[in-house]
């Protein structure tokens, strides 16, 4: 196993507590001895339950006895036949990441990142968060018996996520600024030895998140999808999925790699703008969207994400808040999957762009529903029909229902 810089290729020691390259500031990544691993996997996986730790050989943990786990991964891959019919797609799937222990994909990363914190023997875990990172880190810190400090943009996080962070015992600080300000502060603080940073700048976290790609491959009967559509904020998750699919290919398990479509919100779309204009992204200082989880103007992982999208022959696209709310309801009403607004962005993309004819009717399409809808009940209620008050007798109920038809 080697930790290296994606810009200058210099190596970093596996026990060095750094988040970016000490030489050039580039993002870090982990590579394994794929030729050796190809001899043992996937046979070694079969005896283990579906989930992050099934893929232990491809995780950067030295001491597996320290593992901090609350049952992450192993989420459903739902074949969406009803929604697929509407969208003229025979093989539309949703990876329901909202069914992770704290209700989002972040748990895949935190189980690995917090285990790493134990290896480093650091007691104070810190992150900036649009919500889900704080919920997840708070739970894993609790399980590990470590302190958790989270910085959130003041007034801009969904209520359910805040409730989770406080009940798990995190110290929650509301920063008078946006997510990007909060992240800048935690990066500054985490250069001190007493803190360990668990944002997606942390390469170990992304190692955990890539396992969703392995699961999808297995759940589709040992094949990668043709398309993978995923919401993008800080751009760590799209990079992690791409890495997972690349590793399947390096292990000789799959020649096919999906084309990646990264979906941002129109109010927070730095990567879409950069992609369309074929340039590096410029940070956006004013960002706003109902999908608060992806309300990010300066995605730290943009280099990895841009590479993933370009190499895969995919694209970045944006959707507006109205489309997101509509897609959220459509997914819930046709498939029984309640995802938070950010998690509905890929479906919003499909609804809006189905007529582009980019995707063939028979191709295998996987949309990632990144977080659980109950995290943000306010938004769901605000845009839905309100309950109707009726008298407590069956005749008034029947009268009301007849009036509907
Ligand atoms: C529900 C949800 N979807 C998508 C994202 C975006 O993930 P990333 O920041 O890795 O691009 C987040 C990040 O907070 C999230 O919570
Ligand atoms: Zn470097």
Based on CA atoms alone, the radius of gyration comes out at: 21 Å
What is the spatial order of strands in the main beta sheet?
4-5-13-10-11-12
Show unreliable segments. Answer: none
Q: In this structure, how is the largest beta sheet organized?
A: 6 strands, mixed
Classify the helix fraction into a percent range: 25-40%
The molecules bound to the chains, other than polymers, are:
pyridoxal-5'-phosphate, zinc ion
**Arithmetic mean of pLDDT:** 96
Give the class from helix and strand content and strand pairing: alpha/beta
Distance between the termini: 64 Å
Strand residue content: 15-25%
What fold name goes in the CATH topology slot of the domain at 77-103 and 205-382?
Rossmann fold
**CATH class value of the domain at 77-103 and 205-382:** Alpha Beta
Topology order in helix (H) and strand (E) letters: EEEHEHEHEHEHEHEHHEHEHHEHHEHH
- Total helical segments: 15
General form: globular
- CATH architectural name of the domain at 77-103 and 205-382: 3-Layer(aba) Sandwich
Task: Let me know the number of strands.
Answer: 13
Task: Describe this structure in a few short sentences.
This protein has helices at residues 34-40, 81-86, 106-120, 132-144, 159-167, 179-189, 203-209, 211-219, 236-250, 270-276, 302-311, 321-335, 345-353, 377-382, 394-404, and strands at 2-5, 11-12, 28-31, 77-79, 91-96, 124-128, 147-153, 171-175, 195-197, 227-231, 259-265, 315-319, 364-369. The chain is an alpha/beta fold.
